[in-house]
Design a protein that fits this description.
Strand order of the largest sheet: 7-8-9-10-13
Strand content: 35-45%
Radius of gyration: 19 Å
Oligomer: single chain
Number of strands: 28
CATH topology: Methylamine Dehydrogenase, Chain H
Structural class: mainly beta
Number of domains: 1
Helix content: under 10%
């Protein structure tokens, strides 16, 4: 099932680096080679490197899924997360995080108070959650848009409010963005999960596995203009794990192979009307390999 592949994507962290100019001016160095899990995400905060993921020890240091590196040593970060973490975000010099929820109970966005991670507002809940990672209330990403913190994940309620898949923090509570997200892309596992967020021009872009946004057919990617949802072309035939802007253009990566009737190889570029091939692709010749792009990042003006 595609949902099984989603879990693989979180456990095999894949970085696709496109070097538009060939420059080799540094080398990789091993920080340490001990730990009991893998890292999902890094973030810079207060001049230190923070990491979260599926680990409770890193370089011999015990922690609860969150640790920080001061340039010499790793240290635990307060109480950490109750479950494996997926994303950390430095927003206005405040550190926020979201995590998985393998049980049927609620999940939360967390904010670091300088000592511990505390719950921000009411919890999210997934009505049809089941124990395990196949269909639970996982939260995936955070971003700031129009002065508000936006969070996305697998949920259909926040406190007593019906809020589906994406929510915004108004300073005191979580609100919806229209009628939110629903459904799954045809042919994929029947689980709705928005996975990534980015800002493109004046709009918020959300991607993942969902069929509808604001009641419109979008197939894995949608645009929020601050008041309503819009589709972007015909979307994709499978999950869009990552989106980002590079040189003013929007790129999408995932395990998709089509947009409408156009063939793609796991990466696409938005031309303002449709998704097109960016002129390069990534794929394995082996049929036994599961190919996908999990993360797109711009570092030092390179994608």
């Amino acid at each position: 099932m595609k949902r099984q592949n989603i879990l693989i994507s979180s456990k095999i962290i894949f970085a696709f680096l496109l070097l538009f100019s060939v420059r080799v001016n540094a080398q990789w160095a091993t920080v340490c080679n001990t730990g009991n899990g893998f890292v999902d995400n890094f973030e810079n905060y207060n001049n230190e490197l923070y990491a979260t993921g599926f680990f409770t020890t890193i370089c011999g240091v015990s922690c609860n899924y969150v640790a920080k590196y001061n340039g010499t040593n790793w240290q635990p970060v307060g109480n950490g997360f109750p479950n494996a973490g997926h994303h950390l975000a430095n927003i206005d010099n405040e550190l926020y995080g979201v995590a998985y929820q393998p049980k049927k109970d609620s999940n939360w966005v967390y904010k670091f108070d300088g000592t511990n991670f505390i719950k921000l507002g009411e919890g999210t809940y997934l009505t049809n959650a089941v124990v395990g990672f196949s269909q639970t209330n996982n939260l995936y990403n955070l971003i700031k848009y129009n002065g508000k913190i936006i969070a996305c994940g697998e949920f259909d309620r926040v406190g007593k409010k019906v809020i589906k898949g994406i929510m915004q923090w108004n300073g005191t509570q979580w609100d919806s963005l229209g009628s939110g997200l629903s459904g799954n892309i045809s042919g994929t596992a029947p689980v709705m999960y928005p996975h990534d967020l980015c800002i493109y021009g004046n709009d918020l872009i959300v991607s993942g596995n969902f069929k509808n946004a604001g009641g419109q057919l979008v197939n894995g990617i949608a645009r929020w203009d601050g008041s309503q949802w819009h589709s972007m072309g015909q979307g994709f035939n499978s999950t869009v794990y990552s989106i980002c802007t590079f040189n003013g253009e929007l790129y999408a990566g995932g395990d998709f192979t089509m947009t409408g009737t156009t063939t793609l190889n796991y990466i696409a570029k938005w031309n303002g009307t449709n998704w097109v091939s960016p002129g390069f692709s990534l794929y394995y010749n082996s049929n036994s390999s599961y190919t996908f792009i999990h993360t797109l990042k711009v570092i030092n003006n390179q994608l």
